[in-house]
Design goal:
The protein has 209 residues and is mostly helical. It has one domain. It has helices spanning 2-21, 23-36, 85-92, 100-106, 119-122, 153-166, 169-186; strands spanning 42-48, 54-60, 110-112, 138-140. A two-stranded antiparallel sheet has the order 1-2. The protein has a two-stranded parallel sheet with strand order 3-4.
């Protein structure tokens, strides 16, 4: 209980400090997006969070308008032509996730926790997989710094469950530090094979049972 209270306090403080400190860079990114391609600066889409509650997630738009209805749909690949020039850079350094600080401040998300998922995945979860919904989803996660899209959905969900079962201030600190290393140095797992987002439930659902 004390840990969860402290975690929420850290989320509020961290998101406020982050939004204030990054206001100029984030405004510059927004300008680049507008100059680079037609459409809104932000991309909003439903995600499923703690206890199965739906919320709109905020991200910088990195693809052409209506991308989800063309090409690979919800999946992306390294050579995906739907990704804009600015979007390719944002994705490479995970900068498209910065607006999620708004979600953290609102209480939809946490700085650290299982990454938010989409409804059709949740509808196919096993009872064990639903454990990842016991905590607020995070901007970064144990799975994000241990393979990200290079590992299967089943493996990612198992890492999320491990975090839910063993979350602690020490684990959170390790994840934060490793996030900077992965995002800005190794940049591992941005894309995997031909698609960054495997279609959960059709290829490896069993591995997460």
């Amino acid at each position: 209980m004390i840990y969860l209270f402290a975690k929420r306090a850290s989320d509020i403080t961290g998101s406020l400090v982050g939004l204030a400190a990054l206001s100029l860079p984030m405004s510059f990114i927004a300008l680049l997006i507008k100059l680079d391609s037609r459409g809104p600066v932000f991309f909003r889409q439903e995600r499923i969070g703690k206890d199965g509650k739906a919320f709109p997630i905020w991200k910088y738009r990195t693809m052409v308008v209506g991308a989800v209805n063309i090409g690979l749909g919800m999946r992306t690949s390294k050579e995906d032509t739907r990704i804009t020039r600015v979007g390719r850079v944002l994705r490479a350094f995970s900068l498209d996730e910065l607006p999620q600080l708004i979600n953290v401040l609102k209480g939809d998300m946490s700085l650290i926790g299982p990454r938010p998922t989409i409804r059709h995945q949740v509808e196919q979860y096993t009872p064990r997989q639903r454990k990842r919904l016991l905590m607020r989803p995070g901007i970064t996660s144990l799975a994000s710094v241990n393979g990200r899209n290079d590992i299967s959905w089943g493996e990612r969900i198992e890492l999320d469950i491990k975090y839910v079962e063993h979350a602690s201030p020490v684990m959170d600190l390790r994840i934060i530090l490793k996030t900077f290393w992965v995002a800005f140095v190794t940049r591992e797992g941005v894309y995997a094979g031909e698609g960054a987002n495997d279609d959960f439930g059709r290829r490896d659902q069993v591995s997460g049972a």
